Amino acid sequence: xxxxxxxxxxxxxxxQGAPRHAAVTRLLKRHLRQRGHTLALxxxxxxxxxHVSTDPRRFEQPMSMKEALxxxxxxxxxxxxxxxxxxxxxxxxxxxLLTRFHLGRKRILDTALxxxxxxxxxxxxxxxxxxxxxxxxxxxxxxxS
Length: 145
Fold this sequence. Notes:
The protein is an alpha/beta fold. The chain is about 50% helix and about 10% strand. It has a five-stranded parallel β-sheet with strand order 3-2-1-4-5.
């Protein structure tokens, strides 16, 4: 199974002081121990990771920009990662989903992620915000506990 990672999962995994670090780490270790299981990342989630992990308003000890860029590069290049690029159809599909489900401006990035994963046939997503993705019938949400 391929398990895509939402930005919040990436943040809690990479920032040791994050409140859900242990739960996310357990989930990802369990997932990767299973034969044939891999993780999926998109550029947009890594861009958000860089943005959030370097924010001093969110963390007492944020990453430096250099550290965040190195972490994002290492994650993207990891052997156990499937790299998902947005397909040409993703823009229109995102607009379609925003319209169909009456989603507002604060839901654009999550909807674009869902559309990107759908186009790549990656239908399992680890997130700490299950409610944000519950509207998408094609995604199975996995919540770290």
